[in-house]
Amino acid sequence: MKELTKKFIKLNNGENIICCLDQTDKLFDNKSVHVIDPVVIHNIRVPRMGMIVETFIMRPWIPLSTDDVAEIQTSSITAVCDPNEKIIEQYEFFLQDRKTVEVQSNEPEEMASEENYEEFIQSILGNREDNEEDETPGQKRILH
Question: Of 27, 91, 98, 101, which is least packed with CB atoms within 10 Å of its CB?
Answer without folding.
Answer: 101
